[in-house]
Every structure is written in C-alpha cells, then in structure tokens.
Amino acid sequence: MTMMLHHLWEKRTALLARSLNYTPKQLQRRLVDWLSYPYSYPQLDPVLQCLMAYQYQQGYRGLLTPDLVQSRQNFQHSMAELIYKPTTLPVVQNLQLQLHSGSLRARHYHPMPNKPCPMIVFYHGGGFMLGDLDTHDEACRLLAKHSHCQILSIDYPLVPDVSAQHLIAVCEAAWCWVWQNQHQFNIMKNAIAIAGDSAGGNISTVISQRLSRQKIAPVAQLLIYPAVDFKSRYPSFFKYKEGLLLTESDVDSVTDHYVLQNHLALDDPLVSPIYGEFKQLAPAFIITAGHDVLHDEGEHYVQLLHHAGVKVKYKNYQHQAHGFINLTSISAQAKKDLVEIGQTFYKFLKTVI
C-alpha cells in the first residue's frame, strides 16, 4: 500500500509539473520563493526553476549518491514517472547486437520505415554510470520524428561495472556493427551520424576522433551538452555547481569512477576529447545549455574545432539547464527546444551527405 501511494504521489507530481506550463510567470516565481529555493537563476526556464526548487525542497543534491544501485533506480524511476504520453512512431523495436564481446541491447526508432533515411547512432547520458534505453526513450522518439532520421540507441555497459576503456571499446564496436550491417536498415548509403547527450556526447566525440581517418567514420556529429574536459574547471562550473540537475559532487564522482579509478590521466583523449586530434573530424552540431557546469567547456570545444577547420554549427540554449532533453514531458520549452534541435540537425545533415 505504501508503494502504491508513493507511485500515485509521483504521478500527481508529474501532472502538477506539466500544469506549470499554463501558470502565469508571476505565480511560478511565487512558487519558487515559497519552496525556499536558495539559488537565483532568473534566466532559467520558469518551469525548470519550479522543478529545481521542488527537488531541492525534497532533498535532491545531485544525480549520484554513495549508493550507486539506488542512484540508478532513482534515475530510471524518475524518468519513467515523467512520461505522460510517449511520442508515437511507426517503428520502435528492441534489438540485440551480436558483438565479439557478447550481445548488446539496442532500440531502433524509424519515423518513415518505407523511405531511406539517415541513421543516427545514439549514446545516452548519465555520467557513464546511470541511464539505459528507457531513460532516453522519449528523447530518442522526438529526435527521430523531427530529424527525419532513424535512430539506434545503444545500451552500453556502465562504470564501475566495466572500465572506461571497455565502455569505449563496446560503444565503438556497436558503431562498427551498424556500419557493417547497414543493409538490415533502410539507410541512405553510408549516411550514418553519431549523437549523444552529456556522457553520451563525450562517447560520441571520442569515437568520432578515433575513427576520423577511417572509411567508417561518422558523416556528422550531434553533441548535446557534451562533457569534453575532465582536467579543467571553467567559470560555468563554479557558477552552476549547485541547485540544478548536474552538480559539483556529480562531476567529482564521475571523475573518480570513470577516470581516476581506471588509472587514466585527466587529459587523456579517451576521456577528455578536448585534448584529442581534430583533423578530418566529421562536421558537428553542438548544443550547450546556459545553466550548466559543462557549458564553457562545450563552447571552448566549438572554438577549437573552428580553429582546426572542422565544420561546426553551434547553438546555446541560455534558458535551459543540463539534462533538459529528458524533461520534454513536463516542460513545454524543453520539448520545443528538442524539436528545434532535431529540425536543425536535419538541415545540417543535408549539407554534408
């Protein structure tokens, strides 16, 4: 009975959160004040301000806690509770990729199954320690629908269950599997792009660099608030390190588990691609969120790619926070922004294929 009541409360909370989209901004600001939210982020989407204030009032201080199993369950549960009505697509199908290292789960989304479409291989975020196919299901549905691309979302193994080196090897093997088996999908010839958010953006960047001079390199990259630099701390890190979805303690925990415990240097391109090789990199559409500890390193990466002669398109969503593509079911603004990202990537992709 207790679990049932908790479930109903969570559903009610998600419903109330969605109703904030239709609440006057003055009332939204009063709600934030009433919840005693101690941070001032006036440019942040008001609905997200209310959500952050509510989470803070409930004791949320970051994605990762010392109990990793509980952190994973909390993230999966929260994402499931937020979904009101999944975006409908003609094809949403679970697959098993047969790799040399074993079987790997993936999920295929196709918005137009009777028409040849580019393929986006997608790696989800979650600090390399959280997340799965379900936590990013709605984001992939929206991205597939509005980019007019099919998507294959990869359920890669997480640290500390595996090493960072193994994680990247599996993700790269999944990419190679898609390239080698593209005849199984209705893909425009060799039009295979790579994408990811946060940690998934890092993975996408690393794979793009490792394959940049090979025939099977991605035709384009979509990097959504990617983590690219574990060595340096930028001004945005100190400005937004508390009170939002991604916190200083989260970054410290990921640095420890993903980099240090795997005996890697903080500037090793395997984990910090900002120190990698940029020559012949695929064109990149890079997204940052204005209220994000990772904002400045993402912006700096854009500048470095420009200087290296890589074709780059850049968009900063100043009113958004890290993780906004996972909040499209409760924030109308987050959904509008992800739809725009999909539409813009479609136009960007047409210039490079």
The major pleated sheet works out as:
8 strands, mixed
What's the total count of β strands? Answer: 8
Mean pLDDT across residues:
93
If strands are numbered along the chain, what order do they take across the biggest sheet?
Answer: 1-2-4-3-5-6-7-8
| Ends apart, CA distance between termini | 55 Å
Helix content: 40-55%
Element order: H for helix, E for strand: HHHHEEEHEHEHEHHEHEH
Strand percentage = 15-25%
- Are there runs of 5+ residues with pLDDT below 50, and where? 1-9
Number of helices: 11
Shape: globular
Secondary structure class reads alpha/beta
Rg, rounded, reads 19 Å
In short:
This protein is an alpha/beta fold and about 350 residues long. Helices cover about 40% and strands about 20% of the residues. Residues about 1-10 have low confidence and may be disordered.
Structure description:
The chain is of the alpha/beta class. 41% of the residues lie in helices and 18% in strands. It has an 8-stranded mixed sheet, with helices on both faces. α7 (199-210) links the parallel β5 (187-197) and β6 (221-224). The protein is globular and about 55 Å long. Residues 1-9 have low confidence and may be disordered.
